[in-house]
Amino acid sequence: MSLRRPSSALVVLAIATVGALGGCSALRPMAGASPESSAGASAGGAAPTAGLTDANIAAIVVAANNADILYADLALAKSQDKAVREFATMVKMDHQSVNEAAVALVTRLKVTPVDNEISFDLRDDAETKRLIFRDLEGFAFDSTYAANEVTYHKQVLGAIDGALIPSAKNAELKALLVQVRPAVAAHLSHAESLASAKSRRR
Amino acid sequence: MRELLVIALLALGGVTCATRKAPPPAPGTRHEVQMRAVAFAPKELTVHLGDTVSWKNVDIVRHNALRPNTFDTGELKPGESHNWTPADTGTYAYRCTIHQRMRGRITVVTKQKVESGKP
Questions:
Q1: Torsion sign over Cα A104, A108, A110, A116
Q2: Average pLDDT for residues B72-88, to the nearest whole number?
Q3: Do B101 and A176 touch (CB under 8 A)?
Q4: Interatomic CA distance for residues A124 and A25, integer angstroms
Q5: Which of A2-16, A51-65, A109-123 is predicted least confidently?
Q6: Tens digits of per-residue pLDDT, A39-92?
Q7: A182 to chain B nearest CA, in Å?
Q8: Given strand B30-36, what is the order of strands in its sheet?
Q9: How far apart are the first and last CA of chain A?
Q10: Of the candidates B38, B78, B98, which has its C-beta nearest A182's C-beta?
Q11: Tell me, what's the pLDDT at A51?
Q12: Which residues does chain A have within 8 Å of residue B38's beta carbon, measured at their own beta carbons?
């Protein structure tokens, strides 16, 4: 089997694996939420969100941003596809900006991020997916990466709408989350286009 | 009596102004285009030759505004801005090269065309 031109079965398996892992995430949409929800719609809330403090939310924001930065770094290291590289460059830059704003805010508010089940799960998921991505090349990598970006951004958007914004107590933290949402929605819309283009090519 | 006359004239002036369409801003005006929520606001803008367009990033992520061979704001961090004073009339479609769906358009006209409503 050529690494550059993997079989369709391998690509499907990789996407299914990443998708299934996404389903294990603490940010998975609530039951009943449409799996086809797009940028304009909430994918539902996160699972273990009761009692989230602002310090928990800060840790989740940083972990979520770092997860997608990690995926983007992999894409920039492995992919030769122009559209994939442009997308990865954009999401990396945007997530870095959000992290900078989040860190500046919590520093000013003297809030120390406190890890929780969701932030730990985000890191675990990111590491697991990194290992999957590491072994993929060419089209298999590009299509799996694009599919994962759709899943990831749906989950993050669902978490922002269903858990983080409703739970945030500090007005500035809530405002930051509200300000982040359009960028996440734009990423999701872009990722859906990218994944659709990749699935057509399969 | 003179005070009453002044008030009456001012009131008349107010009514007259209210019934007329607001005049376009004078040439040399600065127009702000905000980069917010991964969009340009306003998305479309008509300005006079001699006006200045100022893009201001009020978003949480970085943006730029590029029209090849015409203007390039460079990468603007949140809070940063960039000015451009058009040298020619025309319609200039532009985009943020970081966010491919973030697009805008600026139409530059002479003062007479704006006032006559025939851009």
A1: negative
A2: 97
A3: no
A4: 9
A5: A2-16
A6: 333 333 444 566 899 999 999 999 999 999 999 999 999 999 999 999 999 999
A7: 5
A8: B39-41, B30-36, B52-57, B81-84
A9: 16
A10: B38
A11: 84
A12: 182-183, 185-186
**From A176, which residue of chain B is nearest by alpha-carbon distance?**
B60
Q: What is the dihedral of CA A8, A12, A17, A21, to 10 degrees?
A: 140
Q: Do B38 and A183 touch (CB under 8 A)?
A: yes
Per-residue pLDDT tens over the stretch B22-70: 555 566 899 999 999 999 999 999 999 999 999 999 999 999 999 999 9
Which 175-194 residues of chain A touch chain B by CB within 8 A? 176, 179-180, 182-183, 185-186, 189-190
Instruction: Find where tokens 């709408």 sit.
Output: A161
Threshold 0.80, pTM exceeds: no
User: Nearest to residue B56, comparing CAs of B83, B81, B27?
Assistant: B81
Check residue A8 and give its pLDDT: 45
Give the whole-angstrom CA distance, residue B62 versus residue B84: 18
Give A145 to chain B, closest Cα distance, Å: 19
Q: Is B60–A186 a contact, with Cβ atoms under 8 angstroms apart?
A: no
How far is the C-alpha of B24 from the C-alpha of B46, rounded, in Å?
10
Cβ within 8 Å of residue A195, ≥6 positions away: A143, A146, A147, A149, A150
Q: Which residues of B touch A98 (CB under 8 A)?
A: 60-61
| CA proximity to B33, closest of B18, B44, B20, B21 | B44
Whether B100 and A101 lie within 8 Å, measured CB to CB: no
H or E element in which residue B44 lies: strand B44-48
Helical axes A171-201 vs A138-159, angle rounded to 10°: 150
Q: Cβ of B60 and A98 within 8 Å? A: yes
The kind and range of the H/E element at A142 are helix A138-159
Q: Concatenated DSSP letters for A33-68?
A: --TT--TTS-----SS-TT--HHHHHHHHHHHHHHH
The span from the CA of A23 to the CA of A188, in Å, is: 17
